[in-house]
Amino acid sequence: MSTLAMPEAPTLAARIKLATSNAERDAACALRRQVFCIEQGLFDGDDTDAIDSTALTLVAVDGGGAVIGTVRIHHAGDDVWWGSRLAVAKVARRQAAVGSGLIRLAVGAARAYGCSTFLAHVQQQNVAMFRQLHWQALADVVLHGRPHSLMRAGLAAYPPIHDGEQGFVCTRGGA
């Protein structure tokens, strides 16, 4: 009797890193427009703002070079950093490692720059994931007509990452 091998579920591998080229930054902006303007309708046509001029863009890049996730971080004064515009492409949303990897690099890179407080406004549907990643909800707010939580990262769970340009590879099972 012969047995058929069951195919394994495809493994999505992505490099989580600081965007180092204009092509990566442009692809990150396109992904943000797709998620925040087209899918969610939070912005009309474009989500860029003044923060983009000083923010660092982080990306998740798949094996074919496509940007499948992004987040931006920026220094807000003193030792306070913010993360914002976390976006993951539809093809990668079931892979928790992409979003959590971007969060890990965002906080870790900010820590390498001297961050002592890392904050984000998190859409309400994502609060549970952030709590699992050692974030604390501080207040409920409404931004762009949608409920969000102001959240703070538990920095003890995020060691500094000094090589953000190299980043790290994550797969379905984690980084």
Description of the molecule:
The protein is 23% helix and 34% strand. With 175 residues, the protein is of the alpha+beta class. It has one domain (14-170): Aminopeptidase. It is globular and about 40 Å long. The N and C termini lie far apart (40 Å).
Supply database-style keywords.
175 residues; Aminopeptidase; 8 strands; single chain; 3 helices; 23% helix; alpha+beta; eight-stranded mixed sheet; 34% strand; globular
CATH topology: Aminopeptidase
Helix content: 10-25%
By DSSP, the count of extended strands is: 8
Sheet/helix structural class = alpha+beta
Order of helices and strands: EHEEEHEHEEE
> What's the number of helices?
3
Separation, N- and C-terminal Cα atoms: 40 Å
CATH architecture classification? 3-Layer(aba) Sandwich
Q: Over all CA atoms, what is the radius of gyration?
A: 17 Å
Largest sheet: 8 strands, mixed
> By CATH's scheme, which homologous superfamily applies?
Gcn5-related N-acetyltransferase (GNAT)
Query: Which regions are unreliable across 5 or more consecutive residues at pLDDT < 50?
Result: 1-10
**Could you say which overall geometry the principal axes of the C-alpha atoms support?**
globular
Query: How much β-strand is present in the residues?
Result: 25-35%
Mean of residue pLDDT? 91
